[in-house]
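FAQ

Q: What does a record look like?
A: Structure on top, sequence underneath. For example:
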């Protein structure tokens, strides 16, 4: 299983709304993530807007590609894009995995 961690930056003025949107993620979005190989997926948000994402998957590139092909992801990314700083495209395209340097199993 591949462990993936990534960082994004939520606009400070949109933090409350971003948190609210994630209290009730669309059921079809949740189902699509699970179906396309996104497991143990978590988002952590710091008060300054730093967003840390973590997931486990067999193949991150394949999971991203499969998710990008879903209609629900296109709608979700379009709604979420205005929440982020420093992105030229969709938020899911801005997720650059960090390099794992240590893991205690």
């Amino acid at each position: 299983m591949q462990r993936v961690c990534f960082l994004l930056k939520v606009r400070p003025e949109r933090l409350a709304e971003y948190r609210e949107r994630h209290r009730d993620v669309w059921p079809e979005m949740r189902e699509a993530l699970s179906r396309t190989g996104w497991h143990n997926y978590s988002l952590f948000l710091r008060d300054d807007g730093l967003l840390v994402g973590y997931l486990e998957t067999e193949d991150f590139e394949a999971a991203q590609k499969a998710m990008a092909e879903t209609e629900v992801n296109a709608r979700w990314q379009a709604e979420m894009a205005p929440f982020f700083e420093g992105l030229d495209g969709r938020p899911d395209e801005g997720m650059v995995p960090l390099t794992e340097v240590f893991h205690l199993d």
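Q: Is there anything notable about this one?
A: The chain has a mean pLDDT of 95.
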